[in-house]
């Protein structure tokens, strides 16, 4: 509570008044040298039960401002235009993503895209009907759920298929391209001739070897041994189709002594299976050289492909 005392002026060190009402000078000669003046302000006391008095006038306005709290001092500014634009863009992007996800889900499971027709290309050893029959379990399955792996798994029992690719043709078609193994030789088994590839996989059979332009390997792997058969088949697999069609048979005394016979009786000394691509190019070039009737070539030796020999 503020002090209620009134201002007082208390002289200190003054001497009492002399006769005649004049003050006596002090020792220094000044009449009021040691006089000290003090003051205090008297503040009227407000009644504790009178709230109107507390809030009246300037003091009342300050109290009202204090009672209104910090919210009264906050100024609301408009939201920046860039922030509003970013928020709208985010809403649009989220909406588009949701719509795309819904469309994709509908496409993946929609019966409107169910498989009904299969077209097959690239077959020579197989027929399109064989491939279509193998892919029958895919009928009625939505196209987005069919991939190359599904098609390859169903075609695994067909040994003629080396690889396969599939392409959806909406709304209900599937185009299948088959890459078959390439036969490189004939192997006689009894009265039949089997077409085999470079891995020795039996691809087909025929009773007439003349109907197939492939060289003959007598007995196959069972007669000449697995290693010799693989070496011979690897050589045949490296030859171009036009050269392969000119061969009558192939043989190997060892893996380093592979020999080929042309249909006109000429012999090709191949050697081992190393550098077979280079040897194939050299042999193809030698066979294109015009024949000399006076000096016919009987042997083409490409065992050292950088120094071929004809004799």
TrEMBL record:
Which residue ranges traverse the bilayer?
89-109
Its Gene Ontology cellular component terms are: plasma membrane
**Highest taxon of the source?**
Bacteria
Where in this chain does the record put each Cell division protein FtsQ/DivIB C-terminal domain? 185-289
Q: What's this protein's name? A: Cell division protein FtsQ
Where does this protein come from, organism-wise?
Answer: Pseudarthrobacter chlorophenolicus (strain ATCC 700700 / DSM 12829 / CIP 107037 / JCM 12360 / KCTC 9906 / NCIMB 13794 / A6) (Arthrobacter chlorophenolicus)
Q: Where is the POTRA domain?
A: 114-181
Write the lineage as a comma-separated list: Bacteria, Bacillati, Actinomycetota, Actinomycetes, Micrococcales
Q: Which residue intervals make up region (Disordered)?
A: 1-79
Q: Which spans does this entry mark as compositional bias, Polar residues?
A: 1-11
Question: What are its GO biological-process terms?
Answer: cell division
Q: Which UniProt keywords apply?
A: Cell cycle, Cell division, Cell membrane, Membrane, Transmembrane, Transmembrane helix
Annotated InterPro entries: Cell_div_FtsQ/DivIB_C (IPR005548), FtsQ_DivIB (IPR050487), POTRA_FtsQ_type (IPR013685)
């Amino acid at each position: 509570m503020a002090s209620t005392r009134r201002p007082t002026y208390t002289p200190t060190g003054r001497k009492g008044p002399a006769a005649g009402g004049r003050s006596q000078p002090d020792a220094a000669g000044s009449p009021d040298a040691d006089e000290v003046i003090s003051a205090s302000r008297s503040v009227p006391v407000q009644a504790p039960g009178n709230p109107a008095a507390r809030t009246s006038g300037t003091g009342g306005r300050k109290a009202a401002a204090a009672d209104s709290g910090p919210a009264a001092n906050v100024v609301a500014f408009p939201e920046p235009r860039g922030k509003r634009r970013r928020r709208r863009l985010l809403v649009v992007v989220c909406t588009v993503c949701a719509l795309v996800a819904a469309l994709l889900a509908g496409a993946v499971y929609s019966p409107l895209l169910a498989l009904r027709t299969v077209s097959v290309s690239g077959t020579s050893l197989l027929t399109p009907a064989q491939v279509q029959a193998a892919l029958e379990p895919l009928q009625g399955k939505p196209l987005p759920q069919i991939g190359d792996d599904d098609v390859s798994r169903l075609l695994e029992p067909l040994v003629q298929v080396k690889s396969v690719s599939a392409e959806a043709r909406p709304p209900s078609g599937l185009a299948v391209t088959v890459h078959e193994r390439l036969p490189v030789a004939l192997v006689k088994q009894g009265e039949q001739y089997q077409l085999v590839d470079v891995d020795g996989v039996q691809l087909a059979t025929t009773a007439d070897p003349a109907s197939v332009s492939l060289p003959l390997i007598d007995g196959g792997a069972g007669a000449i041994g697995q290693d010799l058969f693989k070496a011979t088949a690897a050589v045949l697999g490296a030859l171009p189709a036009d050269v392969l069609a000119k061969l009558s048979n192939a043989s190997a005394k060892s893996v380093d002594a592979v020999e080929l016979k042309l249909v006109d009786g000429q012999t090709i000394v191949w050697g081992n299976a190393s550098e077979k691509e280079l040897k194939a190019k050299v042999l193809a070039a030698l066979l294109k050289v015009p024949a000399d009737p006076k000096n016919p070539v009987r042997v083409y030796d490409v065992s050292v492909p950088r120094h071929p020999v004809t004799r």
